[in-house]
């Protein structure tokens, strides 16, 4: 299969650049690197969209019902720059949807998974390049459906990213949302198809196509993260897909999987029902809890690689790190009920889910201690990728610890569906994963595009993002502990919450700052793309196989057959003459024999 | 520069702790009473302090870990900065003993936290209050969520719900003080969540399911009924009010409301449509 890729490449190169060859090289490419970069650009564009939607939410919470400058007119001209309550529910729904399904999941698996897996295991491409190309192109129907869910008649999908029925199942429950909810479900289905194609490919590639000498326990942790993520996708996604089709059937064909008998909403005719709204929640979280690990395990892997490289030291406890990735993934399948403690689920079951959820904090703690152990005794270089990786560690601690409050069932009674939850998942997903993604872009940019990004701009970008981010999200814990509910267009008419306005204004100002400083990143990215200093093969003096390939690597990746002699973290090894020891470098005596 | 970055990471535990302490002591310029000094949660009106107690227990345990890891991270960055660290790299792949310690220790603490919660959870959700005779206590009233209001229904003379003598009120719940209050909750359309912040009660109401919540108010006063589950565009305005009053006042309110209902043309069957 990989030979065909190389063949078509040589053909393309030998002809003049015709339209057809342009399309097959850059658009309908089957090269894993091009596909990875396509994913990267698409997701970064959606990142901007998601960020602007977030500003809409923050604006409303700080200055409710007042006209929003600039963006207001772009987003909601119909209301003259003022956010209506209908539109507010669309904002919270679509912000989360875009960030989860169009940014975090595809940027980890789609962009970094595609780009890094063959390079880091020493393969010339993925096992199934055509499937790989399709996994990108199946994102496009999703882009279009989610876009339609936004602009379709009325005001758009508005049942939350969790889309609980009956609100999401009955058209009368959200008048004005029209077909948007149907489009939303189709969008999720296509993201699922794309992920599934990718995950089959990643598993096969990692199992089958490792270079000689690359045993499983010599894989970089990035690859372990990607591998276990692919497994999670493969086992959890079918459940979500099935649930999605059931909900579509409830909406379109009058089935009643999620609707109880004789339900009538807003004077609609009664449904025949016979179903249960809680069934959706079980099915949804059976996928979406593992999905939160899909959204962080690859990031944990990439952070581990960056930490070892810039601490100039081996990863502390490589095997415990691998086992805890597996432990998180395994336990991840039996904790979904922690999203449903107060849903009406049998409270006895809540106790079981509480114990399982507490236990999942354990592998997370082990990973954190091992990251700290990796820094201990090293020689830390504070380059931009390292700063982002360190901030991942520091912030993940916060997200993990807040998980313990919510796992405790009695405490969760108070904080469920409040800003405490919002704080928790922004610490793991933004302060964690998104920061790791920034660090990874700074780290692998030279390999992707052959040029270095600017360090000074990178550090300014880091410092400002870090400060504004904590200003925005840390205070959410306080609000949540005080009961401040999420998804409320105007919480201040409740006397219990009216005094929390000033804190929300502070958070909104920080959020505006946080979005604004991303311009620094955009400038750095595009400037460096064209004018950055040329990077050699291995600008960071790292050990991984990808750093032995040219920057950027051509078709087929390596200009020699990589043979692996050791794990990827032998920094500072006394057996090496330098402070790193590439995986492909033969051991000393072998080199002597060769010479 | 390494020093500057180390200190930036040191600000995390410092500002984090400061934020919590400031909120607990009401230093944040946002107070208009509801967070009295040291009053973190909304004003407490239940005899059952146990949820707050559990919250603070977890806060202190996780706080210690937060401060500990934050300080260790700071110290390692400060000490092992490549620009100033003259010692050779400690070429180590890990330590079996340490892994065992830092697996077992958190496991024990986490298990303890989980088991320690169970009694409070059982009391809040599984052990419905009993009457003096030992039967399950009947509900004081039924609260039904509906887009976007809370319909409240008290049994009349006969002590039973769904009979013609029921009292119907909208968004205005009265409960007697110093007594276990049991409320039946249900939904008439989509999901809602019956949230009484001051009572530490939150329960999603699910169409097709009948559920009960209970709490024990010990202080008279008025507070909010909040809907905590997204239920449509008007979710934000689905607000009710709960008044905790003494027994005499409760009786006075009940008969007055009842009399008003009898004289008005209010017909609950009509509004059901
Ligand atoms: C230490 C490990 C963790 C524990 C103990 C934990 C626990 C919990 C619990 C109990 C909830 C439900 C709270 C509620 O709704 O009342 C929750 C929500 C959530 N968690 Fe975690 N969590 C952990 C790690 C993570 C990670 C690593 C991620 C993502 C990368 C994550 C993402 C989320 C999200 C997105 C939600 C909210 C979903 C929603 O309601 O919209 N969590 N977590
Ligand atoms: Cu979860
Ligand atoms: Cu609601």
TrEMBL record, chain A:
<keyword id="KW-0472">Membrane</keyword>
<feature type="transmembrane region" description="Helical">
    <location>
        <begin position="322"/>
        <end position="342"/>
    </location>
</feature>
<dbReference type="GO" id="GO:0015990">
    <property type="term" value="P:electron transport coupled proton transport"/>
</dbReference>
<feature type="transmembrane region" description="Helical">
    <location>
        <begin position="348"/>
        <end position="366"/>
    </location>
</feature>
<dbReference type="GO" id="GO:0004129">
    <property type="term" value="F:cytochrome-c oxidase activity"/>
</dbReference>
<feature type="transmembrane region" description="Helical">
    <location>
        <begin position="420"/>
        <end position="445"/>
    </location>
</feature>
<keyword id="KW-0812">Transmembrane</keyword>
<keyword id="KW-1133">Transmembrane helix</keyword>
<dbReference type="InterPro" id="IPR036927">
    <property type="entry name" value="Cyt_c_oxase-like_su1_sf"/>
</dbReference>
<feature type="transmembrane region" description="Helical">
    <location>
        <begin position="387"/>
        <end position="408"/>
    </location>
</feature>
<feature type="transmembrane region" description="Helical">
    <location>
        <begin position="182"/>
        <end position="202"/>
    </location>
</feature>
<keyword id="KW-0679">Respiratory chain</keyword>
<dbReference type="InterPro" id="IPR023616">
    <property type="entry name" value="Cyt_c_oxase-like_su1_dom"/>
</dbReference>
<keyword id="KW-0479">Metal-binding</keyword>
<feature type="transmembrane region" description="Helical">
    <location>
        <begin position="291"/>
        <end position="310"/>
    </location>
</feature>
<dbReference type="GO" id="GO:0022904">
    <property type="term" value="P:respiratory electron transport chain"/>
</dbReference>
<feature type="transmembrane region" description="Helical">
    <location>
        <begin position="94"/>
        <end position="117"/>
    </location>
</feature>
<feature type="transmembrane region" description="Helical">
    <location>
        <begin position="505"/>
        <end position="527"/>
    </location>
</feature>
<dbReference type="InterPro" id="IPR000883">
    <property type="entry name" value="Cyt_C_Oxase_1"/>
</dbReference>
<feature type="transmembrane region" description="Helical">
    <location>
        <begin position="138"/>
        <end position="162"/>
    </location>
</feature>
<dbReference type="GO" id="GO:0009060">
    <property type="term" value="P:aerobic respiration"/>
</dbReference>
<feature type="transmembrane region" description="Helical">
    <location>
        <begin position="39"/>
        <end position="59"/>
    </location>
</feature>
From TrEMBL, chain B:
<keyword id="KW-0249">Electron transport</keyword>
<dbReference type="InterPro" id="IPR036257">
    <property type="entry name" value="Cyt_c_oxidase_su2_TM_sf"/>
</dbReference>
<dbReference type="Pfam" id="PF02790">
    <property type="entry name" value="COX2_TM"/>
</dbReference>
<keyword id="KW-0679">Respiratory chain</keyword>
<feature type="domain" description="Cytochrome oxidase subunit II transmembrane region profile">
    <location>
        <begin position="24"/>
        <end position="128"/>
    </location>
</feature>
<dbReference type="GO" id="GO:0005507">
    <property type="term" value="F:copper ion binding"/>
</dbReference>
<keyword id="KW-0479">Metal-binding</keyword>
<keyword id="KW-1133">Transmembrane helix</keyword>
<dbReference type="InterPro" id="IPR011759">
    <property type="entry name" value="Cyt_c_oxidase_su2_TM_dom"/>
</dbReference>
<dbReference type="InterPro" id="IPR002429">
    <property type="entry name" value="CcO_II-like_C"/>
</dbReference>
<dbReference type="InterPro" id="IPR045187">
    <property type="entry name" value="CcO_II"/>
</dbReference>
<dbReference type="GO" id="GO:0042773">
    <property type="term" value="P:ATP synthesis coupled electron transport"/>
</dbReference>
<keyword id="KW-1278">Translocase</keyword>
<dbReference type="InterPro" id="IPR008972">
    <property type="entry name" value="Cupredoxin"/>
</dbReference>
<dbReference type="GO" id="GO:0005886">
    <property type="term" value="C:plasma membrane"/>
</dbReference>
<keyword id="KW-0812">Transmembrane</keyword>
<keyword id="KW-0186">Copper</keyword>
<dbReference type="GO" id="GO:0004129">
    <property type="term" value="F:cytochrome-c oxidase activity"/>
</dbReference>
<feature type="domain" description="Cytochrome oxidase subunit II copper A binding">
    <location>
        <begin position="136"/>
        <end position="256"/>
    </location>
</feature>
<protein>
    <recommendedName>
        <fullName>Cytochrome c oxidase subunit 2</fullName>
        <ecNumber>7.1.1.9</ecNumber>
    </recommendedName>
</protein>
<feature type="transmembrane region" description="Helical">
    <location>
        <begin position="100"/>
        <end position="118"/>
    </location>
</feature>
<keyword id="KW-0472">Membrane</keyword>
């Amino acid at each position: 299969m990989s030979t065909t890729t190389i063949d078509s490449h040589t053909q393309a190169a030998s002809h003049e650049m015709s339209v057809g060859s342009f399309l097959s090289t850059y658009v309908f490419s089957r090269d894993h690197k091009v596909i990875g970069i396509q994913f990267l650009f698409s997701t970064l564009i959606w990142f901007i969209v998601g960020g602007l939607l977030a500003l809409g939410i923050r604006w409303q919470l700080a200055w409710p019902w007042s006209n929003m400058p600039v963006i207001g007119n772009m987003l909601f001209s119909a209301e003259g720059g003022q956010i209506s309550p209908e539109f507010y529910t669309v904002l919270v729904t679509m912000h989360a949807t875009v960030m989860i399904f169009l940014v975090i999941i595809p940027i980890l698996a789609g962009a970094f998974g595609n780009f890094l897996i063959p390079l880091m295991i020493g393969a010339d491409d993925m096992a199934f390049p055509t499937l790989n190309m399709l996994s990108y192109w199946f994102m496009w129907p999703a882009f279009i459906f989610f876009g339609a869910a936004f602009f379709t008649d009325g005001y758009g999908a508005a049942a939350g990213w969790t889309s609980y029925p009956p609100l999401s199942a009955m058209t009368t429950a959200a008048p004005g949302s029209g077909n948007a909810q149907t489009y939303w479900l189709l969008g999720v289905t296509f993201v699922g198809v794309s992920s599934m194609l990718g995950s089959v490919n990643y598993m096969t590639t990692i199992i089958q196509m490792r270079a000689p000498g690359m045993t499983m326990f010599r894989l970089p942790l990035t690859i372990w993260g990607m591998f276990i993520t692919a497994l999670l996708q493969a086992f959890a996604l079918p459940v979500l897909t099935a649930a999605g089709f059931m909900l579509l059937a409830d909406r379109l064909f009058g089935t009643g999987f999620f609707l109880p008998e004789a339900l009538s909403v807003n004077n609609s005719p009664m449904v025949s029902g016979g179903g249960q709204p809680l069934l959706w929640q079980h099915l949804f979280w059976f996928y979406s809890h593992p999905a939160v690990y899909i959204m962080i395990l690859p990031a944990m892997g990439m952070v581990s690689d960056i930490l070892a490289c810039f601490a100039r030291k081996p990863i502390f406890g490589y095997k415990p790190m691998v086992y805890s990735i597996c432990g998180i993934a395994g336990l991840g399948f039996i904790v979904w009920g922690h999203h449903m403690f107060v849903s009406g689920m049998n409270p006895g079951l809540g106790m079981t889910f509480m114990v399982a959820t507490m236990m999942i904090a354990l592998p997370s703690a082990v990973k954190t201690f091992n990251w700290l152990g990796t820094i201990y005794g090293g020689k830390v270089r504070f380059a931009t990728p390292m700063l982002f990786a360190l901030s991942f560690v520091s912030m993940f601690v916060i997200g993990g610890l807040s998980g313990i409050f919510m796992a405790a069932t009695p405490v969760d009674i108070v904080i469920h569906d409040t800003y405490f939850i919002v704080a928790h998942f922004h610490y793991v997903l933004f302060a964690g994963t998104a920061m790791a993604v920034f660090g990874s872009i700074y780290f692998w940019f030279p390999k992707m595009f052959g040029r270095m990004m600017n360090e000074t701009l990178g550090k300014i970008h880091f410092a400002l993002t870090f400060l504004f981010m904590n200003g925005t999200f840390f205070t959410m814990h306080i609000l949540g502990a005080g009961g401040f509910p999420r998804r409320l267009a105007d919480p201040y008419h409740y006397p219990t919450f009216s005094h929390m306005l000033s804190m929300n204004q502070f958070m909104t100002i920080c959020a505006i700052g946080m979005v604004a400083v991303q311009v620094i990143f955009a400038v750095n990215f595009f400037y460096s793309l064209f004018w950055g200093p040329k990077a050699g093969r291995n600008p960071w003096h790292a050990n991984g196989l990808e750093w032995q390939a040219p920057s950027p690597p051509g078709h087929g990746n390596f200009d020699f057959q990589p043979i692996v002699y050791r794990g990827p973290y032998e920094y500072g090894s006394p057996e090496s003459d330098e402070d790193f020891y590439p995986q492909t470098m033969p051991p000393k005596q072998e080199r002597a024999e060769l010479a | 520069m390494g020093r500057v970055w180390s200190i930036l990471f040191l600000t995390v535990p410092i500002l984090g702790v400061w934020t919590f302490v400031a909120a607990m002591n009401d230093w944040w310029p946002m107070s208009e009473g509801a967070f009295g000094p040291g009053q973190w949660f909304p004003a407490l009106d239940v005899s059952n302090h146990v949820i707050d107690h559990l919250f603070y227990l977890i806060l202190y345990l996780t706080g210690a870990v937060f401060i500990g890891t934050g300080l260790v991270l700071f110290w390692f960055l400060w000490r092992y900065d490549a620009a100033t660290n003259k010692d050779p790299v400690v070429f180590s792949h890990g330590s079996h003993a340490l892994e065992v310690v830092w697996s077992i220790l958190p496991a024990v603490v986490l298990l303890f936290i989980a088991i320690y919660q169970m009694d409070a959870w059982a009391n809040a959700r599984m052990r419905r209050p009993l009457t003096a005779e030992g039967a399950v206590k009947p509900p004081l009233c039924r609260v039904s969520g509906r887009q976007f209001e809370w319909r409240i229904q008290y049994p009349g003379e006969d002590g039973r719900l769904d009979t013609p003598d029921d009292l119907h009120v909208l968004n205005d719940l009265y409960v007697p003080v110093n007594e276990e209050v049991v409320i039946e909750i249900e939904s008439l359309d989509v999901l809602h969540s019956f949230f009484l912040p001051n009572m530490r009660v939150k329960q999603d109401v699910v169409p097709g399911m009948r559920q009960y919540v209970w709490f024990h108010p010990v202080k008279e006063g008025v507070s909010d009924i909040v809907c905590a589950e997204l239920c449509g565009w008007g979710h934000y305005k689905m607000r009710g009010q709960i008044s905790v009053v003494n027994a005499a006042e409760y009786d006075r309110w009940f008969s007055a409301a009842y009399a008003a209902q009898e004289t008005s043309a209010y017909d609950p069957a009509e509004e059901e449509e």
